[in-house]
Amino acid sequence: MATINLVRGMGSFFKECDHPESRWPRCPHDDKIRYRNAAGRQAEESGFSTQEKAKARLAEVYQARKNSPQNQHKADPIQKYSPMRFEQYATEWTASQRDLSPSSLQHLDSLLAHHLYPAFQSRRTGTFPLSPTA
User: Fold this and answer.
1) Which of 10, 18, 32, 67 sits at 20 to 30 Å (Cα–Cα) from 58?
2) pTM score, two decimals?
3) Pick from 8, 49, 9: which is nearest to 32 by CA?
């Protein structure tokens, strides 16, 4: 499986057949593309009948990623959790934690009840600084 890279960071297109790369333009197999999506995860699409269609889709995805906000995947949770009170957020977060032993849950509940809730219980999570240095 030979891969042809385009502009750095754009992605690549390839075929998963045994034909040599020189025969790809006349090969009946569909092209596939591989790229990084806006969240930074690798994605793959297939079903492109020509290399031009595959390249056009790669260019479309690349432009969309370049024009999107850099931290959109971080902005969505911030928008969701900012209006929540700390107690509500902590309750939701604790419920989402899997594989905690009973002693760990007891310790976490104790920390929340004795240390964090007295100081932050009614405060909205959007008022906390986002970086540790702020």
Assistant:
1) 18
2) 0.47
3) 49
